[in-house]
Design goal:
The structure holds two protein chains of two kinds. By secondary structure, chain A is α/β, with parallel strands linked by helices. Chain A is 43% helix and 13% strand. Chain B is α/β, with parallel strands linked by helices.
Amino acid sequence: MDKKVATFTVKKGLAQMLKGGVIMDVVTVEHARIAEEAGAVAVMALERVPADIRAHGGVARMSDPALIQEIMEAVTIPVMAKCRIGHFVEAQIIEALGVDFIDESEVLTPADEAHHINKHLFKIPFVCGCRNLGEALRRIGEGAAMIRTKGEAGTGDVVEAVRHARSVFGAIRRLENMPDEELMSFAKELGAPFETLKETKDLGHLPVVNFAAGGIATPADAALMMQLGVDGVFVGSGIFKSGDPPLRAKSIVEAVTHYDDPKILAEISKGLGEPMVGIEVSELPQTERLAERGW
Amino acid sequence: MKVGVLALQGDFAEHLSFLRRLGAEGVEVRLPSHLDDVDALIIPGGESTTIGKLALAFELLKPLRTFGQTRPIWGTCAGAIFLSTDTLERQHLLGLMDITVERNAFGRQADSFEADIHVAALDDAKTPFPAIFIRAPLIARVGPNVDIVAHLPNNKDNGIIIAAKQGHFLATSFHPELTGDDRFHRYFLSLMKT
């Protein structure tokens, strides 16, 4: 029997299994267990959540492989890890650990100012951030098997995730009504690969799963992103920087399932304790905005 | 005929688009009341621990077990795990199908794979079925009333059990909903008529 591993179908397939779910940032084995217990579909193993990366400053790099491995051993759900934009050796190391998914992430300090990783060369799938359709399609062209909004990580302010989701879905709505002879100019305008743009037009959605990330802090934020049309959410600092992480984690999981039912959302939003203390994105200087990273 | 797809988490939209293609009415099931006048149910792929926890939180475990007394249920991957009586781990299960399922039995994501398999029960059985295994489980034990529907050949013994049927329950450790081949969906719909 012929077993085909690492095909794009298999890479994209894992992202499809995560749909309707919440992927949570965790920095310790204990966090990972709390996330799994709350119903996370996967965890992102990190040394510091984005809010602390902001506070700490300096160069943010891939996490210690020992920490990633401990977290892999502690849970049965898929484990993701982040590498720097363009840092293909960090990605090779993460792949060698047997991690299930790599996030080539703007939350870490970019290692290459012009190029992202050639993700086709890897056996495990990648997720990448985007602010608009052109950026999403460039990442898919490089081999990303999953897309997420960039949002503005570590702020607890959902405004950027909303902007990025609206930008992607708005461009897809324009695309759907566009005659084929206008596609090439639109591809040029977006800086998007033509074939992937054509595929998106034919499907009426991105050819891969599309999550929201960056600034999601409450069940209502998560449901807002779902109603805008994303397939699931990443929550970074929003859970473990809040007053009651297990309860908040569980309620965000439930909000993603029942995103369209305001009565249930009202019920699960009650008494969650303090949310993370946020930073308003409009008050962040341009140089401190992580979403600007990526090309 | 109305076919419910458990829509707590996972790739339920992919199953719904197959049902649409086959002319069946598909409905999303998130709460017990959504099971009213549904004739059969599909439990999709996803994360089985998440699906189990959400089913518990929204009081679906008992209604789903009652539903299964009289109506067909098909579980793909996480859905097969959720249908089983045992997974060797502590998680919420429906316990409707007398099988033991071993989770992530082929390894982590780097070991996920595609393979063409032969399934005698399907239409046009000579044409192989494109099976997609994503961090897939295997069926380690089947009870006396369970029929084996498909094996994955291996070099050691008779092969690994990857699909099984017990009366009107069907379990597959792979994902027909991720393929372009609708024969497994047609096979399941045929269980509604018997």
